[in-house]
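Schema walk-through. Below, the input block comes first and the output block second. Nothing else is stored per chain. Lengths vary across the set, and this one has 80 residues.
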Amino acid sequence: MTNVAFVALACGLIIGLGAIGACIGIAIMGGKYLEASARQPELMNELQTKMFVLAGLIDAAFLIGVGIAMMFAFANPFVG
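--- output ---
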């Protein structure tokens, strides 16, 4: 395999594993939000705000991984 093929596989792994991690993280966070809001409904608004902030941070980590993968795909430093 050439360096280009390895870079393509690495990009796929970065994006794929990042997406799986983000989906699992948001699913766990959503489940915990539902549990917490069912136990204490008076805190639902505060918890919802915190949940949306955390969802944005989880998605931001995934999008940073996508950006790094695109950098390797289009401006590959390993192809010489």
